[in-house]
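Researcher: I need the complex structure. Ligand is EPZ. Inputs:
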Amino acid sequence: MKKIVINGNRPLKGEITISGAKNSVVALIPAAILADSPVILEGVPDISDVDSLKEILEIMGAKVEHVGETMMIDPTEVQSIPMPHGKINSLRASYYFMGALLGKFGEAVVGLPGGCNLGPRPIDLHVKGFAALGADVRNEYGAMYLRAGEEGLKANHIFMDNVSVGATINIMLAAVKAKGRTVIENAAREPEIIDVATLLNNMGAVVRGAGTDEIRIDGVEELHGTRHSVVPDRIEAGTYLAMAAALGEGVVVKNVIYEHLESFIAKLQEMGVEMTIREDSIEVFPSHDLKMVNIKTYPYPGFATDLQQPITPLLLKAHGTGELIDTIYEKRINHVPELARMGANIQVEGNMIVMKGPNELTGAEVVASDLRAGACLVTAGLMAKGTTTIFNVEFILRGYDHIIDKLTGLGADIRLVEEDEKN
Ligand code: EPZ
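Model: Output:
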């Protein structure tokens, strides 16, 4: 096990480049098995979720070459290997193998995804979508058993009871080879969904409307290999923009698509953060006398739930009282007691996180409960006076490519060390 040690209260300065999106690549990699020839993904982030998915692909018989940011996936020898447990449970996004295997082979046995610290994370909408396509779906012994009907999957008109990124993508993966036109209504609109649809269309699928709340998929017989570049990670970008606003003395965040962060950037501007927005980068200038704001998370294009924890240390630096409500995951609050240990005036009141600023944070020993909570604690540690030690950092390494190197490059005093090493 490792820990992160930060000596805080140092300015950040320089340039940082955003990597490919975790929440796209964890769907693109399973989607690649739908092709009957090699798929090349470029801009693949170096995160442990990618390593886990590569291992799962190889168990299924795919050949995978992962060099730097390029991953070549040759799916020609892939079989529908039952994976009721084991590596498949190590990350939530392994549920995309349900849609991909069902779409390719008409059957799948996939272990249920592990829970995590955001509260319940059901997959009933995924199951409802697969059943609507004519699949028999059984949930037994901690795994999902899926099988298409005799004539294969049949298109259908599916109305999503609520907006779900994972279910929207998973149904797309199953429907691309279903007979007829599938319509997904009340679909999620995240940029990662557009990225997956772009890959599928370049493989020969016919997916229209991704990024809107109605997606139409005309089933095809065959899908072939292609080359695809992963969309930049808007959540990684938001995380570094918040750090730059809190501690920056001139930080340029590169490889950013402004349109993917409009609601987040609007909040930074409402707080008084000075930025210059360019074609594919955003420069953040030193910010003083920030104003506290209220935040409510919503499905895209609303304020992303994944950015409520990363922006919180910046909010704590601002003047005034603020309320934050996460309408997607009400239990996404495990970072709050850790921030309080660092001297923050923050507490949970009902379904709200209430903050009062400004706060002078002090270093402490804290524990990351999930990926974005971990990023929040890194930001708080960078801001705090003294030394902060963060445990459970495996969460952070799951989703932030080279975070230690990237922050060191901006002048941070941050190290990843063995847990039993003296600070
Ligand atoms: C994706 O998770 C992201 N993960 C999450 O990011 C992100 O927080 C979430 O979307 C919301 O934007 C990946 O893309 C790998 P949902 P997903 O289905 O697809 C409920 C991170 O930090 N729901 O959009 O699992 C669910 O409980 C991670 O990178 C059902 O009720 O989220 C939640 O309240 C954390 N039934 C809401 O819908 C279902 O079948 C949205 O969930 C599915 C979801």
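Model: Summary of the prediction. The pocket of EPZ is lined by residues 22-23, 26, 92-93, 121-126, 162, 164-167, 188, 305-306, 328-329, 371-372, 399 (CB under 6 Å).
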